[in-house]
Specification:
The complex is a heterotrimer of chains A (290), B (390) and C (275). With 290 residues, chain A is mainly alpha-helical. Chain A is built from 11 helices and 4 strands. In chain A, the strands form 2 sheets. Chain A has a two-stranded antiparallel ribbon with strand order 1-4. A two-stranded antiparallel ribbon of chain A has the order 2-3. In chain A, α1 runs antiparallel to α8, α2 runs parallel beside α4 and α6 crosses α7. The longest helix of chain A is centred in the N-terminal third of the chain and has 32 residues. Chain B is 71% helix and 1% strand. Chain B has a two-stranded antiparallel sheet. Chain B is globular, with a radius of gyration of 24 Å. The two termini of chain B are 41 Å apart. Chain C has 275 residues and is of the alpha/beta class. Chain C has one domain: P-loop containing nucleotide triphosphate hydrolases (Rossmann fold). Chain C is 37% helix and 23% strand. Chain C starts with a helix and ends with a helix. The chains are: A mainly alpha (290), B mainly alpha (390), C alpha/beta (275). Chains in contact: A-B, A-C, B-C.
């Protein structure tokens, strides 16, 4: 009983970690730029495939390390390009901005499918990653811990970045009032690109870790993660890292426990959770009183 | 008095013009309907566009699907273009119409008519309930909730109870329950006319609604929700009304689509389907009804013809790098989104105005900083060309 | 030459003399959300002293100020020390030395007072913290507090302090005493008086006592147009004029020929509530 509980919790937190990796970028992007980035799932997928391709060619731990760099760099690069050529020109037309990101979110995974095929590409995990860890009688796959560690590292790193650096200061202020930031002589657009790239990097990492978690990668993985990430972002507060972290944990755990009770109940219970929270909430999506 | 302000405000002039314009528009609509009605009698061939003459079953089937999608696009435009609410779950109504009808016919043995009516009833109830819940939040939250609802329905249909819904394969409709007039290849024309009737119904409902008072309130909600509230009216109710009407229309479309396909398919429950509706509306021009119809027809045509296109010799001869993306329907869908946004903002409906404008001088355009800078740069350059410094 | 240094060069070459206006607004037209807000507003802001921008609620005073900053698309010409502002984005306009203190103060509530100030530090000059803390010692006391927990008056001081850290050449200040208790209003007004001795200010104000104390020129807007320009004290000394233009009767407290009173007296009359 206890071991099942622990296994479920670990799996739920592992999922939560994945959601957080994707949702943190989304949340910052929306908080700072008011852009709902439907292309974020594409960043995940591109990161994942970049990593897989590298690991496919370079074996062992070194290959995995390179794959990590490929995932992060690939996601960041695609995100920066998206911000510069898709988001920025449409700054005055927010609805068209959303539509363009939707279009990208459809086109890029399809492109990946065209190149790599629709069938999942399998990941061969190195021995130390493929094993399990025994925690109070539960055998938890090591990958779960890697996921959780990565998410915690991202959370810590982002908080440091926001609290201690000037760029972080600009982002925190911009989330509140970007007009005023510009009126102080600061070029907010550079912050936009930076935040987008950062979100893309985290998304790329999520792509790699998702592949390791599932043991394989397919073109639609990013999009299915994205939907849950959206739920997390809406549940947490846009632009608030802690809120996103807590919401990720909630969604991941609810999903896992509900799935245990009945298959597919997990996904549906997430929907119900979302509806319930939105109905009961008294504040708007940025946490200001509605 | 500012030189750019017209003597008679635009709304007044359109009111003056519209009395003649309404008659003209009505005549156009009747003409279009007559032409569409006559298609199954025509043996005109359009090589490249259709595989056979207009009265062949294959072509009629394709056209019928286009008409249904045009109707669905109109129902979606009621939400998006007219009332300004972006739903990512509209496909669930189509799904509901298809599946409820199929399940009742196949598993409960009811007649097609009863099942279809029951499907519509379920759609109505679902629209009221889901709309009431989802509209409590605005904008992004609403989009997310509808997305989540759509996903939930999709899950139900695909993996929830495969025995009932046929899972990923879908469920064929018991052919015995379909009335003779609508079954069999010989009767494709009847199905075509049914689809036409559906489109006409959608158009009639949308036309009537948008000119009615609730409809004008919906447009007001889109433009300035605060103003509606200040008037003491509740925007929520108008949005809900739009949501319910659009939902019921879409459910009806699902029933018609079911008859066209002969079965229920889970593809209509996916988010891609709803995004397809969005593309139809954006392509045609959100809020412009003729544009939306055109968008629906074009998109459905492209979607249906894609298999033909990807198998065609011209695409097959392209180098692999170009060919494989073109064979991915979602790639084309995504690219068309981006293309419309960048190259045709406002959709096809703006084409006539653009063509007219390109032949006229730039008068009375809104002055933005960029425009002024551009205009000054152009002026400076032309001044230099006329009298170069030296 | 980088863009910034070339802008600096242009500005240096055309630095105004004391008699040339530092800001010229000419034919400013602004349309927002389909309605025309400003119809060809034209006025100058002198290179020294306070120019008051007056008018009833909703005539377009805040819109005018925001347009100078590039926060709205405009028609017409806005020229700052000879530089055309219409093609510049907001942050470049601010970098030219234009400071903005908005009507709602716009302090960043989640950041500490210190962080709010740090954000506003100039890129190329040494920040003048000594001047700011001398004007508003409370900011030093509350340095670590989140700005959202400050009182309205303290937030106003923070908003003012922000724009004084760098080498400001013109300040756009929108209703600084609005909603403040008399104590804070008085302190803010005092501070404004001192600031005005160093930097020209375009001041939007409904509070005529403040205007009378420190404004030299007045520009009055009505329905998106300039309906009066001239000496501020002359305007306020004419009750029928002020009534017609501003909808208020402003009975003069001091004689119109008196210069602004020295520091001690204004504090007394402000606290005595002689608005």
């Amino acid at each position: 009983m206890v071991s099942t509980l622990i296994l479920l919790s670990a799996t739920g937190l592992g999922l939560a970690a994945l959601y957080f990796l994707v949702a943190s970028g989304l949340s910052l992007i929306f908080g700072l730029m008011d852009v709902l980035n439907f292309a974020h799932g594409a960043f995940v997928a591109v990161g994942g495939y970049a990593a897989w391709t590298v690991a496919d060619h370079v074996a062992g731990g070194f290959g995995l390390g390179l794959a990590l760099i490929a995932a992060v760099a690939g996601g960041a690069a695609l995100a920066a390009l998206t911000e510069l050529f898709i988001i920025r020109p449409l700054y005055a037309r927010p609805l068209d901005q959303v539509l363009a990101t939707v279009g990208l979110g459809l086109a890029i995974p399809a492109l990946l499918q065209a190149v790599w095929g629709a069938d999942p590409r399998t990941w061969t995990l190195p021995g130390w990653l493929a094993g399990t860890v025994n925690l109070l009688g539960a055998h938890i796959p090591t990958v779960r811990f890697v996921l959780i560690a990565a998410a915690l590292a991202l959370l810590g790193g982002l908080r440091l970045l926001l609290a201690r650096t000037r760029a972080g200061l600009v982002v925190r202020a911009g989330v509140e009032n970007r007009e005023m930031v510009a009126a102080l002589g600061i070029d907010v657009h550079r912050a936009f690109t930076g935040v987008f790239a950062l979100g893309g990097a985290a998304a790329g990492l999520a792509g790699l870790l998702d592949g390791l978690y599932q043991g394989s990668i397919s073109p639609g993985d990013g999009t299915s993660l994205l939907i849950f990430a959206f739920v997390v972002v809406v549940l947490g507060r846009m632009g608030s890292l802690t809120g996103t972290a807590v919401a990720s944990a909630a969604v991941g755990l609810v999903q896992q426990f509900a799935n245990y009770l009945s298959p597919n109940l997990g996904d549906e219970s997430v929907v119900i959770l979302l509806a319930a929270v939105l109905l009961l909430r008294r504040r708007d999506l940025k946490g200001r009183p509605a | 008095m500012s030189p750019n302000r017209p003597l008679i405000p635009a709304r007044a002039t359109s009111a003056i013009a519209s009395s003649g314009g309404t008659a003209r528009r009505a005549a156009l609509v009747v003409l279009a309907l007559v032409l569409l009605y006559a298609i199954p009698y025509s043996t005109v061939q359009l090589p490249g566009v259709f595989d056979g003459p207009l009265d062949s079953p294959g072509t009629l089937q394709l056209l019928a699907v286009c008409l249904v999608f045009a109707g669905l696009a109109l129902s979606y435009d009621l939400l998006f273009g007219h009332t300004g609410i972006m739903s990512f779950g509209h496909g669930l109504f189509v799904t509901g119409g298809m599946y409820v009808t199929t399940i009742l016919v196949d598993h409960a043995g009811y007649s097609l008519l009863i099942s279809a009516l029951a499907g519509l009833g379920v759609g109505l109830v679902a629209a009221v309930v889901l709309g009431a819940v989802a509209l409590r939040v605005d904008g992004i939250g609403f989009a997310m909730v509808t997305l989540a609802f759509g996903q939930a329905v999709s899950l139900l249909v695909v993996s929830g109870s495969p025995a009932l819904t046929g899972g990923e394969q879908g469920q064929t409709l018991n052919a015995a329950a379909v009335p003779a007039a609508l079954s069999g290849i010989r009767n494709t024309a009847n199905l075509y006319w049914l689809a036409l009737a559906y489109l006409a119904l959608c158009a009639a409902v949308v036309w009537w609604l948008t000119t009615s008072i609730p409809g004008r309130m919906m447009r007001a909600v889109k433009e300035n929700q605060q103003r509606v509230e200040v008037l003491g009216l509740n925007p929520y109710l108008f949005k809900l009304l739009a949501f319910v009407i659009a939902g019921v229309l879409a459910t009806g479309g699902g029933v018609i689509y079911l008859l066209l396909l002969g079965g229920a398919t889970p593809t209509v429950s996916g988010s891609d389907f709803t995004l397809g509706l969005l593309v139809m509306v954006v392509l045609g021009g959100a809020g412009r009804r003729w544009g939306v119809v055109a968008g629906g027809v074009l998109y459905a045509y492209a979607d249906q013809s894609l298999t033909r296109l990807s198998g065609s010799s011209s695409v097959a001869s392209l180098p692999g790098l170009l060919r494989s993306p073109l064979q991915q329907p979602l790639f084309l869908l995504g690219v068309s989104f981006v293309a419309v946004v960048f190259f045709l903002p406002g959709g096809l409906a703006t084409l006539p105005a653009r063509l007219r404008a390109s032949t006229m001088p730039m008068r009375g355009m809104p002055i933005t900083r960029r425009h002024r800078a551009k205009r000054d740069a152009v002026n400076a350059k032309s001044r230099e060309e006329v009298a170069p410094r030296g | 030459m980088t863009y910034q240094s070339s802008v600096d060069q242009v500005v240096a070459d055309r630095a105004p003399t004391a008699t040339e206006p530092i800001l010229r607004v000419s034919g400013l037209t602004v349309t927002l959300g389909g309605s025309a807000i400003l119809h060809g507003v034209t006025f100058d802001v002198a290179a020294t002293g306070v120019t008051a921008l007056l008018g009833r609620n909703g005539v377009g005073k805040t819109t005018t100020v925001k347009s100078v900053l590039g926060l709205h698309p405009i028609g017409g010409v806005v020229s700052f020390a000879g530089t055309d502002l219409s093609t510049l984005p907001t942050h470049r306009i601010a970098r030219l030395g234009i400071g903005y203190v908005p009507e709602d103060r716009a302090v960043f509530a989640g950041l500490t007072v210190e962080e709010n100030l740090r954000l506003a530090e100039p890129a190329r000059a040494a920040p003048r913290y000594d001047f700011v803390y001398e004007l508003f010692p409370v900011l030093r006391e509350r340095a670590r507090q989140p700005a959202g927990t400050l009182s309205g008056g303290e937030q106003q001081m923070l908003a003012l302090g922000r724009v004084l850290l760098g080498p400001a050449r013109l300040l756009l200040i929108d209703e600084p005493t609005k909603g403040l208790s008399p104590k804070y209003a008085g302190q803010v007004a005092l501070a404004l008086g001192r600031i005005a001795q160093q930097v020209p200010i375009l001041l939007v104000e409904q509070n005529l006592a403040v205007v009378r104390r420190m404004a030299r020129d007045a520009v009055v807007l009505d329905m998106g147009r300039v309906v009066h320009t001239g000496d501020a004290r002359d305007l306020l000394a004419d009750p029928s004029l002020t009534n017609r233009l501003l909808g208020v009767s402003a009975a003069p407290v001091h004689s119109t020929t008196a210069k602004p009173a020295p520091a001690a007296a204004p504090a007394a009359d402000l606290e005595a509530g002689a608005w």
